[in-house]
Amino acid sequence: MVFSTSPGATPLERAGHVMNHANMWRICDDFWDNWKMLKPQFKRCADWAPFVGEGHWPDADMLPLGHIALRAERGNDRMTGFTKPEQYTLMNLWAMFRSPLMFGGDLPTNDEFTLSLITNDEVLAVNQKSSNNKQLKEENGLIVWTADVPETQDKYVAFFNINDSINSEMSVTLPELGISGNYLVKDLWTKEEKGTVADKFVARVEPHASVLLRFSKVK
């Protein structure tokens, strides 16, 4: 049995109590498919990240992806209102935060793109198996999250640009990640290898978009 509390946003000051008495708890009111609702989730997830652990999970709410309205509570029959970059951003934040993944669309009438979002094994592994998940830094709407890959010297890294109109170069150094040596960088969505780094990795990220990477130790 899993005990989930969903009264709306759980007060952060009650974190200790809810960790000891529930398996999941909502960190926000009902979450819907628009950027206005996604953007505040970054601060909520950063605030709640220290309380993520086996058996107790802050819940950023369901994934409003794919064919989310047939006879809907809100709106007519429609697909999600998120753009494709925003959908990747949603999945990357939920994965790095280790939020419970509960799909809010109609599976029989979904499209191939939506299916690809929820069946990527490497992205799901971030959500299911990573540790020490946290926001590493945030400045002017540019956010970096990191997590450990258990039983390895590898790291997961996510870049998020939550600005509305500015393409930005984002970077992270190996010392910032607490690692050293040579690391092979791989994009977990495209499966593309981005080369080997020994000092700093730089990515260009469009507004509302994100990049999810694995830094693998080169032996």
Task: Please give a structural write-up.
By secondary structure, the chain is an alpha+beta fold. The chain contains seven helices and eleven strands. It has helices spanning 15-21, 35-38, 41-48, 84-97, 112-118, 121-129, 174-177; strands spanning 4-5, 24-26, 57-59, 131-139, 142-148, 155-161, 168-173, 183-187, 193-197, 200-205, 210-217. Helix 1 links the parallel strand 1 and strand 2 (24-26). The longest helix has 14 residues, at 84-97.
Radius of gyration: 17 Å
Mean pLDDT: 95
Number of strands: 11
Instruction: Describe the strand arrangement of the main beta sheet, using strand numbers.
Output: 4-5-6-11-8-9
| Overall geometric form | globular
Number of H/I helices: 7
Question: Cα distance, first to last residue?
Answer: 43 Å
Largest sheet: 6 strands, antiparallel
Secondary-structure-derived class: alpha+beta
Kindly list the characteristics that best describe this protein:
219 residues, alpha+beta, six-stranded antiparallel beta sheet, three-stranded parallel beta sheet, 24% helix, 28% strand
Sum this structure up briefly.
This protein has 219 residues and is α+β, with helices and mostly antiparallel strands. Helices cover 24% and strands 28% of the residues.
